[in-house]
Amino acid sequence: MADKKFVEQITSMEEDFTKWYTDVCLKAELVSYSNVAGCVIFRPYGYALWEAIRAEFDRRFKETGHQNVYMPMFIPESLLQKEKDHIEGFAPEVAWVTHGGTEELTERMCVRPTSETLFCDHYKNIVHSWRDLPQLLNQWCSVVRWEKTTRPFLRTREFLWQEGHTLHATAEEAVEETERMLNIYADVCENVLAMPVIKGKKTDKEKFAGAEATYTIEAMMHDGKALQSGTSHYFGDGFAKAFDITFTDKNNKLSTPFETSWGVSTRLIGGLIMTHGDDSGLVLPPRMAPTQIVVIPIAAHKGGVIEKANELAESLKAAGLRVAVDASDNSPGWKFAEYEMKGYPMRIEIGPRDIENGTFVAVARDNREKTILPIEGSAGKVKELLDAIHDRLYKKALENRERHTHTAHTFEEIREFAKENCFIRTAWCGDEACEDRLKEEVGVTSRCMPFGEAPVDDVCPVCGKKSVTTIFWGKAY
Amino acid sequence: MADKKFVEQITSMEEDFTKWYTDVCLKAELVSYSNVAGCVIFRPYGYALWEAIRAEFDRRFKETGHQNVYMPMFIPESLLQKEKDHIEGFAPEVAWVTHGGTEELTERMCVRPTSETLFCDHYKNIVHSWRDLPQLLNQWCSVVRWEKTTRPFLRTREFLWQEGHTLHATAEEAVEETERMLNIYADVCENVLAMPVIKGKKTDKEKFAGAEATYTIEAMMHDGKALQSGTSHYFGDGFAKAFDITFTDKNNKLSTPFETSWGVSTRLIGGLIMTHGDDSGLVLPPRMAPTQIVVIPIAAHKGGVIEKANELAESLKAAGLRVAVDASDNSPGWKFAEYEMKGYPMRIEIGPRDIENGTFVAVARDNREKTILPIEGSAGKVKELLDAIHDRLYKKALENRERHTHTAHTFEEIREFAKENCFIRTAWCGDEACEDRLKEEVGVTSRCMPFGEAPVDDVCPVCGKKSVTTIFWGKAY
Predict the structure, then answer these.
(1) What is B405-474's CATH superfamily?
(2) Cis geometry, peptide bond prior to residue A134 (ω within 30 degrees of 0)
(3) Fewest CB atoms within 10 Å of the CB: A130, A427, B112, B344?
(4) φ, ψ dihedrals at A291, nearest 5°
(5) pLDDT for B416-433, tens place per residue?
(6) CATH homologous superfamily of domain B10-276?
(7) Gap from B403 CA to chain A (nearest CA, Å)
(8) How many angstroms separate the Cα of A406 from the Cα of each of A90, A430, B113?
(9) B219: buried, middle or exposed (CB in 10 Å: 19+, 13-18, 0-12)?
(10) pLDDT (tens digit, 9 = 90+) per residue, B389-401?
């Protein structure tokens, strides 16, 4: 059978999760490797996933008053150097342009790894008075970081993302913005991508180069490893001072504004794959799937089957669903495997016998459950089935996370739990030495200090000093 | 008056068209200069214009079966060199990346000036059989060409564009595609952007580096200069051979496929400005304007005025129009000038007396014509007024082109007409020597050999040899 053969091409998740992941990326035709070291090609289906994710965020950004801009992709070296922590963090991993045409540049420029410096330089020019604040800007673009290893969506030298950059009259407003955007990230992850996330704050060691505080959403992948899925940074007035940005406030006093930045990237596609996928391939959450339903005519050569399949598809489209019909001459078995690989949330089978009965069969991608529905007037029921798929995907991911989250009270317990990929919840003294020790001796890094969690212990399990926070540890992508 | 002061900041078109253009770009807040030499910042309104234009094209590309992808932004030097004419055309104007982090690269890479070489490399990997054809791919991205001069939208080192790249089993199909995309370009320019264009073929001298034929749409700006507004290239099998792309055809024979590429860019924004703008600023065609109508409450402090303005705006939005309300405490005069500068196609004035009469005043941006309409049920009429604006803008641009298009029969006539910016229509022998002579002695370049124009003369006015085509000459941006 054609479908059998096709599916056999994927490594099983349990056997080799890394290989399974790469197999899905390639066989579902999300990416292709290129001859440009460290970069991948986003193929049509992979790019369509990004377009779908982008649309969800872009709408929310605009609803909260943000506007899109486009900054140059180059940053002159002197501009990158203006904020000390920032250049230290990024200099080792940028690509340098040294020549334009046949001429050597008088000052080399890097390809943007992130654009704080460009936005600051721009803000310096356009912000003068309190009337010019807040500035709520965002850009969709690609950035470059010279990574040594390559994994599609997770780690590539060039990747696609959005970077929001805002400027505020007060620290309070800037902190509020940082939190607002983190909440938008969490909303899209949970309610659109069906990926449960833990919201929290990064430790000083793990925060963004130049930030005063970095907030993060952390998701757990199927294999128990963490994926940092989006970050939101509060800069205080550090960048503004370094770039000499000032404004005249309402009392006619010269003040320094406060800044934020926040970003999500094509990593989220990697997150989708590793959260929901299975041994048949990709499983897409219905609210973001570019195509939610594929209609497959059975015994399509029989008179009227294709027509009825098209009619059904049109009626579902009219109800706002994203539907395709595959009336090609490939076998139904081949098609089933193909659309399972591509993770379409639902397939509809409709053949002569169904048509005789006035029904069709809806098959959910995630659990293969079949539902027989009447051809007429089932759009509402189909939507319910799609919502149920979303809920199951979310629940399954949450259960996976809960099953792989442990609370540890001693160093030995941490070491024991860390033998498998998981989140380890502990108390923490806030000292970087304990963080370093856990990294070196146990191989886990701090994921975040979660918001609103009850204290685990009074003392740090690593050093025994007074605890100041609850923290999650884990191994991360 | 506030509006007077504001408008005085723009240079008049007749006085200095170049300065007028830059003034509009800056005062309408479309762009800002950056500290990155040769690059500009697309500010929110400038980027919104690009988003609007992009949406129009993207929809048409998808309707004709094209899919979006994303290729790496870097091209290794050896890849760029594979097609000889191509590297000769682009090598002098690319930016070279030589270092990644602290390490020198073993092979330098350029930032893409265009991506034919990357697509070919990809096609070689994914095309094997006739079943894999056609490939109809497109990408939206930025490209870099190391220009010496900078003019916002028209000539910058980095600019935004789309590049379509397609691969076909036969030459006929590829030629058809080249023409199809040129027609889509012309459709959007004329029916959305209200910019009349001349469709034609470029001479060998002016065609794209590596192309067998380049088709173009040429628009005339208000000052009589030409703007090449979009190009569509037929490559034959040249690139495919250089990259060793082959496929097994239906007869199981190894064949070489045929290729096209086509692109439009943020130049079109420059085209919009220079086609429709006037001494009060930008004039946007209503079908692409991000905001079509701004509602301005008059005597807004009076009870009920702002409420009624909002109500009216909501009812127009409900009819599918893009509407904003400016209820800020700036004076109406300031607002009138502001939205004229930004080119909003229509403003609506509504004050206490209007409300008493159950009416509002619609003012067209292009000719300032006022129309009094009833508050209830005028959405249809407003749409008609917007369509009329589109038609007037198109007609005005067409008349400008016709007024500045001359047919010449002798070299002297060409020289005489070329004293002013215009299109000069002549016969041509097809010899590059005549083209070179006109460039050197008269200062005009060939714009295109128009499709479907009657022959002008039997002989070339430059050399007296037999004519093979009609051709347009002009000065171009």
Answers:
(1) C-terminal domain of ProRS (3.30.110.30)
(2) yes
(3) A130
(4) -120, 120
(5) 999 999 999 999 999 999
(6) Bira Bifunctional Protein; Domain 2 (3.30.930.10)
(7) 38
(8) 34, 20, 52
(9) buried
(10) 999 999 999 999 9
pLDDT for A8 equals: 54
Which residues in chain B touch residue A40, judged by CB atoms under 8 angstroms apart? 72
Verify whether the Cβ–Cβ distance A158 to B73 is below 8 Å: yes
Angle, vertex CA A340, rays to CA A339 and CA A345, nearest 5: 85
Mapped onto helix, strand or coil, the DSSP state of residue B118 is helix
Are the beta carbons of A312 and A325 closer than 8 angstroms? Answer: no
Spatial distance between the Cα atoms of B96 and B111, rounded to a whole number of angstroms: 6
- CB-CB under 8 Å, B111 with A111: yes
Of A395, A349, A350, A352, whose CA–CA distance to A368 is shortest? A349
pLDDT in tens, A273-310: 999 999 999 999 999 999 999 999 999 888 899 999 99
CATH number at B293-386 = 3.40.50.800
Spell out which residues of chain B touch residue A137, defining contact as CB-CB under 8 Å.
44
CATH superfamily of the A293-385 domain: Anticodon-binding domain (3.40.50.800)
pLDDT at B350 over 90: yes
Number of Cβ atoms within 10 Å of the Cβ of B12 = 12
**Model pLDDT, residue A87:** 85
Taking the CA of residue A140 and the nearest CA in chain B, the distance in Å comes to 10
Write out pLDDT tens, residues B276-306.
Answer: 999 999 999 999 999 999 999 999 888 899 9
Q: Please give the distance of CA A305 from its chain centroid, rounded to a whole number.
A: 40
Distance CA A70, CA B269 (A): 14
**How many residues are listed for chain A in this entry?**
477
* A135-144 and A67-68 strand pairing: parallel
Map tokens 């053969």 to a residue: A5
**What pLDDT does residue B8 have?**
53
- Domain over A16-276 is classified CATH 1.10.260.40: no
Q: Mean of the pLDDT values across residues B32-36?
A: 93
Mean pLDDT of A160-175: 98
Q: Pull the structure tokens for residue B444.
A: 């005009």
Mutate to test the interface with B, among A69, A90, A108, A342 (most CBs of B within 10 A): A69
Which tens digit of pLDDT belongs to each residue from B142-155? Answer: 999 999 899 999 99
The type of residue at B88 is E
Closest CA to B141 of B122, B118, B120: B118
Interface probe with A: pick from B30, B32, B35, most Cβ of A within 10 Å: B35
User: What's at B73, amino acid-wise?
Assistant: M
Q: With 50 as the cut, is the pLDDT of residue B24 above it? A: yes
Shortest distance between the Cα of A99 and any Cα of chain B, in A, equals 5
b/e sequence B409-422, b meaning 16+ C-beta within 10 Å: eebeebbebbeebb
The model's pLDDT over B184-226, given as tens digits with 9 standing for 90+, comes to 999 999 999 999 999 999 999 999 989 999 999 999 999 999 9
pLDDT tens, position by position, A380-394? 999 999 999 999 999
Residue A7 has pLDDT above 90, yes or no: no
Size of interface A-B (CB pairs under 8 A): 148
Which sequence spans correspond to the domains of chain A? Answer: 16-276, 293-385, 405-474
